[in-house]
């Protein structure tokens, strides 16, 4: 957890335009992979096992989940394929 806080501090120390570019790329990503064993990894700070806030039903062989990172607060979506 300590490493995540350091990473977040490093993100905020970046030049504004670089930080905005990184956040744009992360926000434009459709979803991250979800692994039943490891959970989802935050695309911003790299925190593992982010909490699931909303889960959809299986749609054929795909299930989507929405997460919120406890370390940095970023919200993102993950997908799991069967």
Short description:
With 82 residues, the protein is α+β, with helices and mostly antiparallel strands.
Mind explaining what this structure looks like?
It is a single chain. The chain has 82 residues and is of the alpha+beta class. It is 29% helix and 26% strand. It has two helices and four strands; from the N terminus they run H-H-E-E-E-E. Strands 1-4-3-2 form a four-stranded mixed sheet, with no helix packed on it. Strand 3 and strand 4 form a beta hairpin. The chain is elongated. It starts with a helix and ends with a strand.
Chain-wise SSE layout:
Blueprint: H1 2-12, H2 16-28, E1 32-33, E2 51-55, E3 62-68, E4 75-81
Parallel strand pairs: 1-4
Antiparallel strand pairs: 2-3, 3-4
Give the neighbour order of strands across the main sheet. Answer: 1-4-3-2
How many DSSP E strands? 4
Low-confidence regions:
none
Q: Quickly count the helices.
A: 2
What level of helicity do the residues show?
25-40%
Topology pattern, helix = H, strand = E: HHEEEE
Biggest β-sheet strands, sense, barrel: 4 strands, mixed
Helix-strand makeup class: alpha+beta
How far apart, in Å, are the first and last alpha carbons? 30 Å
Mean pLDDT value: 78
Name the beta content range. 25-35%
Calculate Rg over CA atoms: 14 Å
Q: How would you sum up the global shape? A: elongated
Write out key terms for the chains shown.
82 residues; 29% helix; four-stranded mixed beta sheet; alpha+beta; single chain
């Amino acid at each position: 957890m300590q490493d995540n806080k350091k990473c977040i501090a490093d993100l905020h120390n970046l030049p504004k335009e670089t930080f905005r570019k990184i956040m744009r790329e992360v926000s434009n990503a459709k979803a991250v992979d979800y692994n039943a064993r490891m959970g989802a990894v935050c695309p911003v700070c790299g925190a593992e096992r982010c909490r699931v806030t909303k889960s959809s039903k299986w749609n054929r062989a795909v299930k989507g989940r929405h997460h919120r990172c406890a370390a940095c607060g970023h919200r993102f979506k993950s997908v799991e394929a069967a």
